[in-house]
Amino acid sequence: MPTYNFAAGPAVMPEPVINQIQRELPSLGGSGMSITEISHRSAAFTDIIERAEADLRALMDIPDDYAVLWMQGGGTGQFAAAPLNLATTHQRIALLDSGHWAVRAGDEATSLGFKVDVVGSTKADHYHTLPELAHPLTAGTYDYLHITTNNTIEGTAFHQLPATNGTTLVGDMSSNILAERYNVRDFGLIFAGAQKNLGPAGVTIVIVRRDLVHQVSHLPSMLNYQLFMDKHSLYNTPPVFAIYACGLVLQWLREQGGVDEMERRNREKSGRLYDFLDESKLFYNPVTSNARSLTNVPFMTGDADLDAQVIAACQAAGLMNLKGHRSVGGLRASLYNALPLAAVDALIDCLYHFEKDHA
Ligand code: PMP
With b meaning 16 or more CB within 10 Å and e meaning fewer, what string describes 271-303? Predict the structure, then answer.
């Protein structure tokens, strides 16, 4: 019986990549040294990071006037880095409150002394829909508008971006980068921790329009976009292994057909699950249909004890890590790029039989 990992992050990685890492771990490229042992200044690692960037650029169609930075500190680090680097004119940002991670981003900016205006929120609706701008943004008021393109916990995603009226858009793409097509040009900044769609935890992707990056004083070096841009992400020791593993995932993504193919597969995977849930008399997904995420699907029975039984039944069938986030409860299936369609079919089969037995 195969094991399928529905974790929200760190999450499933492509099996061929795990196998390649295993093969190459003792000796990278016949060097007699492991990737975990080589210098970040070595020729071997220079090739790895340059190729990874080229593959990411090709996959996301990143224009030359955008820099790609490999940073540390996760999405949470970027909740600080984004305002510190970009909110330097008005010290004021607009935020669409679509759930937990948007709130966290706003709280971090507030704690650093920035003014954060929530310009739309679906909190009152338990985040089952996506917020719209309550009023059009006035030009020249905000340094940027922050959105969470995919809400990992609530299971919503912006498939259409808000009209910003010329205000720079910042996207926290932590849970759907490379899983669905976005136009990089619509954003001034995109960031994402690697540990969902890209590789192991420990590295954070930052894609930023170069003209937004400038020297800011009193900034910790590790959060300084200008410094990381000037030093090609090698100001200090980067997470060598994590970047190597991301590089292998990026190669795999290109071989598989790239972002459009991933989006097609993710639509198919999530579509099958949503169809099942919508038909079910026991389970439901609470999200409005046009706001539904392709990568994170929360669902529940409405009875916490029954939910726990479902999770146990799934686990017994090799379907792992389906417990929902504590703020939403129930179950959550994360269907990132590396999760095969067979995993979703196995999940639906398990839920179907559970429902039949509990009718
Ligand atoms: N943003 C989103 C959308 C997330 O899902 C997460 C992590 N689950 C974060 C930010 C925080 O990322 P990290 O744990 O890498 O700091």
Answer: ebbbebbeebebbebbbeeebbbbbbbbbbbee
The pTM for the full model equals 0.98
Give the right CATH number for 258-357 from 3.40.50.2300, 3.90.1150.10, 2.20.28.10, 3.40.830.10: 3.90.1150.10
Evaluate if residue 1 carries a pLDDT over 90.
no
Cβ contact 300:329 at 8 Å: yes
Residue 359: is its pLDDT beyond 80? no
* Closest ligand 1 atom to 204 CA: 15
Q: Is the CB of 42 under 6 A from ligand 1?
A: no
pLDDT in tens, 36-65: 999 999 999 999 999 999 999 999 999 999
Q: What's the rounded Cα separation, in Å, for the pair 245 and 276?
A: 34
Of the residues 55, 97, 143, 196, only one is catalytic, namely 196
115: β partners: 92
Q: Which atom of ligand 1 is nearest to the CA of 173?
A: 3
Whether domain 15-256 has CATH 3.40.1280.10: the reply is no
Asked whether residue 70 is marked as a ligand-binding residue, the answer is no
Active-site annotation holds for 172 = yes
Query: In angstroms, how far is CA 6 from the centroid of its own chain?
Result: 14
Task: Give tens-digit pLDDT for 235-261.
Answer: 999 999 999 999 999 999 999 999 999
Active site residue 101: yes
Interface predicted TM-score of the whole assembly (ipTM), two decimals:
0.99
Is the preceding omega at residue 131 within 30 degrees of 0, hence cis? no
Distance between Cα 70 and ligand 1 center (Å): 16
Query: In the prediction, which pLDDT does 134 show?
Result: 85
Q: Over the stretch 152-174, which tens digit does the pLDDT of each residue have?
A: 999 999 999 999 999 999 999 99
Q: Determine whether the annotation assigns residue 76 to a binding site.
A: yes
What's the 75 CA to ligand 1 centre distance in angstroms?
Answer: 5
Cα 126 to averaged position of ligand 1 atoms, centre (Å): 19
